[in-house]
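quick one
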Amino acid sequence: MWNPATGEQQSEVELATIEEVDAAVQAARAAFPAWRATSLSRRSEVLFHFRELVDANRKELASILTAEHGKVTSDALGEVARALENVEFACGIPHLLKGEYSEQASTGVDVYSIRQPLGVVAGITPFNFPVMVPVWMFANALACGNAFVLKPSEKDPSASLLLAELLKAAGLPDGLFNVVHGDKEAVDRILEHPDIDAVSFVGSTPIARHIYETATRHGKRVQALGGAKNHMVVLPDADIEGAADAAVSAGYGSSGERCMAVSVLVAVGESADPLIAAIKARVPSVRVGPGSDADSEMGPLISPDHLKKVSSYIDRGQQEGATVVVDGRRASVPSDGFFLGVSLLDDVTPDMDVYRDEIFGPVLSVVRVDTFDAALQLVNDNPYGNGAAIFTRDGGAARRFQFECQAGMVGINVPIPVPVGYYSFGGWKASLFGDTHMYGPEGVRFYTRTKVVTSRWPDPATSSVDLGFPRTR
Ligand code: NAD
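structure w/ nicotinamide-adenine-dinucleotide:
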């Protein structure tokens, strides 16, 4: 495992064998029945306690994120804060698991629904949010009464171990939360394991597709969130300075390694020149440096390979006919580590690789279009559908965008519309395989099965024992 800020190897990750994955699943299976039978108030109490422990360990978790992922401290603390929202939501599990009840559906017959846990569920998570994305999954999964097996990214795996310790300290019984470090071998065992009932995945689109196809073939319930190419549409009436601020923070924040990062700016009509000028003016103030340095606003990329890949898109864009307004390779950045300055490409068109591929780095592409309709068409023609944003002062235009755009999360004058913890997170099209979004109410639905009970009790007046009711026979 790298230290992305120094370029040095900092440790080695021992990858789980198939036998180790099996042992984790077995421990989870053994712990499940007692946890399933544990009262809602006790499960909720464990989550409340976990919330307090995560809160008390914010800095510790953030420093692990900075050391292994490279993100700056403010970003790392923000990630922990968003994870806390998901724990807080799951604390309300007694309310969230309430079923429905229809009295007297037929004479003397009542019908009601209850939600029951699935059993053993697994989570496979990406490198870019090593605290938040696992919490998206396991907070609800455990609250619903399941046992959990986490396979975190092998690129920055340590935060998951601290989360496991905090769950144990919060009173979660042994066997209910298991971490297996691994790569494809461990993942493929999870996908086919007969004792795993459901799989939650977050990562790139090709792997999400593989996870969905393989795990569903093995009879599992699957939600697999994939990659993204998020567009931010700027209309000519928008607050251009505000839009430029938003584009810089949403395009370059966390080095562009966010699935909700803005990757394409769609400049409509006359907005393009002032918008590009305003972004260009802000670029020199984006301080690139080690995440642990309080002055840094953007840290390194995750690995040397990723640095090479992201850098190559700047040349590729130029070869394809884009104009390189800002070249991140020329920025003054620390020479050690996997640092890259921010880049801005203008005159990008939809047939270019820089437009089509998810670059996942600090490279913003500007596509110029003449009209709102052309902007909407561009967003909707893109195979991904994670997030999309519009910047405008026109309520009618914003409403039409919200109504017609093909994306799971939409921002109106908000560049990164990540839903709060009491909604659910997920994209459309190639950004999601399966039909359930993550965390919030959809998370509760994913981690439970509904059972509908139809009941008829004999009229007490017909009982063979005299209960004091008037006898009917
Ligand atoms: P990735 O797809 O390479 O890896 C994700 C997980 O899959 C890791 O745990 C990894 O070990 C495992 N994996 C990798 N290759 C595998 C293979 N061949 N077979 C089985 N398992 C494999 O993703 P990443 O690089 O860690 O994360 C970045 C990607 O995640 C980006 O595409 C980003 O958009 C996406 N992402 C999406 C969301 C979302 O909510 N839609 C959120 C965060 C990240």
